[in-house]
Backbone:
């Protein structure tokens, strides 16, 4: 069974592959023909535009291969090339500096970029942080505080671990469908398809189904796995002393539009409070988990004292951008010419 071939989802995926192929070809021609360099020189991104990059994980090649194509991450080798390129061709700003420019109307340098990370994975400290320090590049990391310094896994990490370590060869559930788990490729495909279905569900139902799968398969998740996966508060403090800023990403990483208003406000406020307690510094920025927000959520973020919030919507920001709907460009494993193409903003203007 392959749900990607059914109905609207299959059509959407096919169109996505076409768009991806066209973009990749355009990026290749633009980068290797020298057009991209000419474009950067002439446009300068208008002198008031900023592209905010969104990373999640930095993964060594064997680990990324083990996690499969669904892994939200790039390798340290690729990340270093990207940071070096940004520092050479662009002005890398802190998110706070960009927000202050919007608030004051100050003119920005030409070709600006901002580096951000979501979630708070340990590899942000062990692999990304040394590279950021080497190039003196500022960055903002958004923390889901209920996972920092704990063994609490994200539901996605639970699903990954259980399906990769079960001895079962198939799975059938009325809520999620039927899956062949007889090969590594099939397991990775099953994980990707289940994540897509689970993300569309209310938070409580999603968590219940994931925990039910853990119990059904009987796979023991090592209690120390969380400590290996997530940052500790000592890691956070070390990075904070050396140029990395931190923003809030809720406590437990729910989709805020799929929980009660009371819980949404608590998630927003408590994550801010926890980081401020640990760092003894005001937290100014927020990232919507899964990019989910509406006007009510925006209002809550503003009322809780945040100066800005970032989304997962692709796009370019400028001095007129809504501070609570800042756009970002997600960076995952990709050829370098595609990264350069994304950062130039060409694909974002089309």
Residues:
């Amino acid at each position: 069974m392959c749900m990607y071939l059914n109905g609207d989802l299959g059509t959407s995926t096919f169109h996505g592959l076409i768009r991806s192929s066209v973009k990749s070809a355009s990026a290749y021609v633009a980068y290797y023909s020298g057009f991209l360099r000419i474009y950067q020189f002439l446009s300068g991104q208008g002198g008031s535009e900023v592209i905010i990059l969104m990373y999640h994980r930095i993964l060594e090649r064997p680990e990324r291969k083990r996690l499969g194509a669904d892994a939200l991450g790039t390798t340290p080798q690729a990340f270093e090339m990207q940071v070096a390129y940004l520092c050479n061709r662009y002005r890398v700003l802190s998110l706070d500096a960009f927000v202050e420019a919007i608030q004051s109307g100050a003119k920005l340098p030409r070709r600006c970029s901002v580096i951000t990370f979501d979630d708070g994975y340990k590899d942000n400290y062990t692999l990304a942080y040394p590279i950021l320090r080497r190039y003196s590049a500022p960055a903002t990391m958004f923390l889901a505080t209920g996972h920092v310094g704990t063994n609490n896994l994200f539901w996605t990490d639970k699903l990954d671990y259980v399906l990769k370590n079960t001895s079962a060869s198939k799975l059938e559930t009325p809520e999620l469908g039927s899956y062949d788990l007889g090969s590594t490729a099939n397991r990775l495909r099953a994980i990707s398809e289940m994540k897509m279905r689970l993300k569309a569900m209310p938070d409580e139902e999603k968590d219940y189904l994931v925990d039910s799968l853990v119990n059904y398969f009987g796979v023991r998740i090592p209690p120390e796995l969380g400590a290996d996966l997530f940052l500790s508060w000592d890691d956070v403090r070390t990075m904070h002393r050396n140029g990395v800023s931190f923003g809030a990403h809720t406590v437990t990483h729910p989709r805020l539009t799929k929980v009660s208003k009371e819980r949404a406000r608590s998630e927003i406020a408590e994550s801010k409070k926890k980081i401020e307690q640990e760092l003894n510094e005001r937290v100014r920025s927020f990232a919507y988990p899964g990019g989910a927000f509406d006007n009510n959520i925006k209002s809550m973020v503003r009322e809780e004292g945040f100066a800005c919030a970032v989304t997962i919507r692709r796009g370019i920001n400028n001095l007129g951008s809504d501070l609570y709907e800042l756009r970002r460009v997600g960076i995952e494993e990709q050829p370098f010419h595609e990264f350069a193409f994304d950062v130039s903003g060409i694909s974002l203007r089309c």
Notes: Confidence is low (pLDDT under 50) at residues 1-15. The chain has two domains: 49-151+229-349, 155-217.
